[in-house]
Amino acid sequence: MEPRIPHMASIPSEEDVAAERERLQYQRRYRQTLRTTIYALVVVAAAAVLIATLFFPVLQVSGTSMEPTLEDQDIILLVKTNNFETGDLVGFYYQNKLLLKRVIAGPGDVVDIDDEGNVYVNDELLDEPYVTEKSLGETDLSYPYQVPESRYFVMGDNRATSIDSRSSAIGCIEKDQIVGKVILRVWPLSRISFIK
């Protein structure tokens, strides 16, 4: 019986070795590029969340109290600020919910609302182009009403249905409750606009 000679593997050619080296380098570059891209996306996402949380909160509208200015399901952008003027649309915390209303009067101002829904601040009729249908709405206050110090009197644009500072259920809001001022509607795309 003849002794068995183990099968000898063929030695790869220089071209095969070069091709394998090229394939391994490509895999290494691909993994490195993928890792770098993922890290970059994580950093961008974290920065976006941080900016949105600290400076420009993004909210989705729920309800009809701000119609016709804002509609249910609109997505809006707020800017954090401490300066609010009559007519500004603000978001504020109330019982762990974020509500959207319009600033009508500031600290110390005197608010009066007649039976037709005309709003007077310090004896001057407010020009309210954002209100389509005036209404006294749900109120349990005695008018004229003076806004307490460091508080704001706010109302929804849909005066007939909005529950706001006219009701002691919400009352005037403190400056610390205010998250920011609404500046932009970003969704739906057909209605993108700056909010006044």
Keywords, separated by commas or semicolons:
1 helix, 196 residues, alpha+beta, 4-stranded antiparallel sheet, 12 strands
The radius of gyration computed from the alpha-carbon positions, rounded to a whole number of angstroms, is: 31 Å
Count of beta strands: 12
| Molecular shape | rod-shaped
Question: How does the major sheet shape up?
Answer: 8 strands, antiparallel
Question: What is the N-to-C succession of helices and strands?
Answer: HEEEEEEEEEEEE
Q: What is the beta-strand fraction?
A: 25-35%
**What does the oligomeric state look like here?**
single chain
Question: What ranges have pLDDT less than 50 throughout 5 or more consecutive residues?
Answer: none
Total number of helices: 1
Helix content class: 10-25%
Mean pLDDT: 80
Distance between the termini: 101 Å
Structural class, by secondary structure, is alpha+beta
